[in-house]
Amino acid sequence: MTVGAQSSCVESSPLPFQGMGTVELQPYFTPVLRRDLMAAVNTTARSLGLRAASVVVLDALLSCLPCRDNRTGRDGLITPATLLTVYAANDTLCFRARGITDRQLRRHLERLEDAGLIRRRDSANGKRFPIKQGGKIIGAFGIDLSPLLARSRELFDMAEHHRQQKAELRGLRARLQKLCAECLALTDDAETLALLDAARNSMRRVGATVAIAREMIGRLSAVLSELLVRAEDCNNQPRGPECQHTQTGQRTASAGQNVRHKEPVKPDTKETGQGTDRWFSMTHIVPFFPDPPRDLHSLQRILFDFGTMLGMRASTLSQAVVSLGLIPALEALNRIAGLIDDIIHPDAYLLQLVAANRGHTAPHRKQGSWR
Fold this sequence. Notes:
Blueprint: H1 2-12, E1 21-22, E2 32-33, H2 34-48, H3 52-62, E3 77-78, E4 85-86, H4 90-96, H5 102-114, E5 119-121, E6 129-133, E7 136-144, H6 146-150, H7 152-184, H8 190-204, H9 210-236, H10 274-280, H11 296-309, H12 314-324, H13 326-338, H14 346-358
Antiparallel strand pairs: 1-7, 2-3, 4-7, 5-7, 6-7
Helix pairs in contact: 2-3, 2-7, 3-5, 7-8, 7-9, 7-11, 8-9, 11-13, 12-13, 12-14
């Protein structure tokens, strides 16, 4: 259908107008809204090899299409009957693309053409202008957006797949963080700590994928299983030197950046629910962990899990526990979570609290039982 339209258009067009963009040359596509199409392009830009500035230029080109309703001022649908060849001058496009230079505009147009989203329809003198017949625009020389609209369905499918992958990746990240916290509670072995750092760093990268996350989860699950078996064996045998770092919740000051102090938990028969009340006062943590911690080990896991959710490093959380105490450190995380919209770097903010606490001789705060 498109080939026949192209041949008939070329035969009926005067010779000087050959090569211009016309409605007859455009492929058929499902009508779309400009904002929906740009949302799909934004989502798939990395897969298309486009940077943010190139996407802005593409948005500027789409803004020049004659699809706005003159009565309401709102964007209408882009249809196959819309002339898709943009003949706006470079000055107009630069202005709409947030003030980029003419040289930058040409470079981004080349990238969009290489990505298969636009086609240049140059006139004999390289100028862009419309062709009118009977007072109506029948075609134009300029930048043809037909390739973009022809791929609109493909872009929508890619964007939906990308959103699904992103949602799955968020869940895998949370699972990976939990595995890291569980491994940290069982060992301070240098090799395991290096693996945990590698896992966290791989998930912080922009190019992190579902496949990478699943691979790291598989490796950490195997490590955790081995640590649990080793801890169980040590619990069933007299404690030896090889078991001193495998007991759950026990860590030494030589653990480098992952330091947790363990104090003997003594049952307090005078507790009257004050610990539980203190727990439920942490209104930003409780929704994630509705059940009060049963012991210090559970409290440690919650602190490291929640701190990781806030983007804090294990070394920073360890320093906070050492300097502030376990329960005050958790209360500090609760305050930070309440101000998360105003705190750009939660990790650095917690380090400042730790530094401020070290500058004062505060009395030691007892890490009591929650029950």
